[in-house]
Amino acid sequence: MSTPTQPLRIGPHTVQPPVVLAPMAGITNAPFRTLCREFSGGKGLFVSEMITTRALVERNEKTMQLVTFDPTEQPRSIQLYGVDPATVGKAVRMIAEEGLADHIDLNFGCPVPKVTRKGGGSALPYKRNLLRAILREAVSGAGDLPVTMKMRKGIDDDHITYLDAGRIAVEEGVTAIALHGRTAAQHYGGTADWDAIARLKEHVPEIPVLGNGDIWSAEDALRMVRETGCDGVVVGRGCLGRPWLFADLVAAFEGRDARAGGTDGGSRRPALREVADVMVRHARLLGEWIGDESKGVVDFRKHVAWYLKGFAVGSEMRKRLAVTSSLEELRAGLDELDLDQSWPAGADGPRGRTSGNNRVVLPDGWLKDPYDCAGVGEDAELDTSGG
Ligand SMILES: Cc1cc2nc3c(=O)[nH]c(=O)nc-3n(C[C@H](O)[C@H](O)[C@H](O)COP(=O)(O)O)c2cc1C
Predict the structure, then answer these.
(1) Best residue among 79, 104, 112, 180 to mutate for probing ligand 1, ranked by most atoms within 8 Å of CB
(2) pLDDT of 306 over the 60 cut
(3) How does residue 7 score in pLDDT terms, banded at 50, 70 and 90?
(4) Distance (Å, rounded) from C-alpha 102 to C-alpha 81?
(5) Hey, which residues does 118 pair with through a beta bridge?
């Protein structure tokens, strides 16, 4: 298999192979990024969970912890979410002046009603002038740091925004665009529209386009590049409970057939024993990052079902493992499982959120004029649940 694309360039950074860990709120913190990077051999780009710009400029304590990186992380990639051009500008300047990151991504994909109701998230690109103003502030405030954006196709099938948004991004000096091939109305339901990724690539040939949506395996990633001509792939839910997917992605893009085998990098799926070791390591890293083992294990609970998906583990045991509070308890529970189980077929394919087709809640009159200069209340920033 030959390498399907040129190296991906994000400003001064070369991302080779062109694989990107999607920002995921509550997931892609420093510990999870570390795990994924270990499996990828340090190759690829690993984006932080979304950071709200207002919380950053106010130096909210939790937010300041979210913008921490492992000393070996390079480039350090922060995703920002903001609705007010001035606040976004301030946040970006703060990152640039204080050297907090090497790359800034802007999130315009959040479909959560609490946010779109105020005109934020994936509702925002509909207001072309507001989008332009935010991008302009971000790019000018970032100085030498590259600014990228991540978005959805639009609000719904009748209000598609990605082509206009892509053009505006190019005009404002954005370095690359990631497109999740769904509308806000789709949430995570149905299948991602990869044709839209191909259309965006044709529409903005000046800058790299990254494709996002429904990559569950390394083969899906290669196929997305082949079918859309995109310059790189952004992988989200596929690596929930499967950080070794990054080993597969790197191997596939480098033309190797090997697929992750836990620790040995061989061409087999990890057995439950190896999965259990990764689980404990993930929980330990979270504890070290938070500075409290128990809090780390509690934060890890949300990952348990993803790691165990498809394995023969009884429901009682699953419940027990999802309420542990110490590494010892987690390890002891895992040791009670039949750890010789090999990777089950049921563990491949979709995982994480898959529901969709919700009506998008918007502010009154939002759709009347895509070009009016209305701003968005900063309370559209309160969301923490991502894109
Ligand atoms: C739990 C979760 C949290 C997410 N948080 C964010 C976020 O903070 N910022 C963002 O741009 N997208 C966020 N997303 C969207 C993903 O980055 C990605 O666009 C989406 O999951 C589609 O890609 P996938 O099919 O590979 O999962 C989130 C998705 C999930 C499932």
Answers:
(1) 180
(2) yes
(3) confident
(4) 17
(5) none
Regarding the beta carbon of 107 and ligand 1, being less than 6 Å apart is answered yes
Q: Contacts from 293-302 at CB under 8 Å and sequence distance 24+?
A: 293/326, 293/327, 294/325, 294/326, 296/31, 297/324, 297/325, 297/326, 297/327, 297/329, 297/330, 298/325, 300/330, 302/26
Among residues 134, 105, 104, the alpha carbon closest in space to that of 119 is found at 134
Q: Which of 8-12, 115-119, 167-171, 281-285 has the lowest mean pLDDT?
A: 115-119
Q: Which residues pair with 183 in a beta bridge?
A: 154
146 pocket-lining for ligand 1 (C-beta < 6 Å): no
Residue 166 has pLDDT above 90, yes or no: yes
pLDDT tens digits for range 220-270: 999 999 999 999 999 999 999 999 999 999 999 999 887 765 444 444 578
Regarding the beta carbon of 213 and ligand 1, being less than 6 Å apart is answered yes
Q: Is 17 helix (H, G, I), strand (E, B) or coil?
A: coil
Pair of tokens at residue 66: 């979210």
- Give me the pLDDT at residue 152, please: 98
Instruction: Kindly report the backbone phi and psi dihedral angles of residue 165, in degrees, each rounded to the nearest multiple of 5, phi listed first.
Output: -65, -40
User: Residue 28 C-alpha to ligand 1 middle, in angstroms?
Assistant: 10
Q: Which amino acid belongs to residue 159?
A: H
Position 68 pLDDT exceeds 80? yes
Ligand 1 centroid to residue 341 C-alpha, Å:
30
State what percent of residues in the chain have pLDDT above 70: 95
| pTM of the predicted model over 0.85 | yes
- What does the alpha-carbon distance between residue 71 and residue 76 come to, in Å, rounded to a whole number? 9
Maximum Cα–Cα distance across the chain? 61
Rounded to whole angstroms, how far apart are CA atoms 378 and 372? 18
Contacts with 99 (C-beta within 8 Å, 6 or more apart), sequence order: none
Query: Is 36 considered catalytic here?
Result: no
Token look-up 């894109």 returns: 387
- Both tokens of residue 264? 């040995």
Could you tell me the distance, in angstroms and rounded to a whole number, from the CA of residue 236 to the centre of ligand 1? Answer: 6
* Whether the bond into 17 is cis, omega within 30 of 0: yes
Ligand 1 contacts CB of residue 321 (under 6 A): no
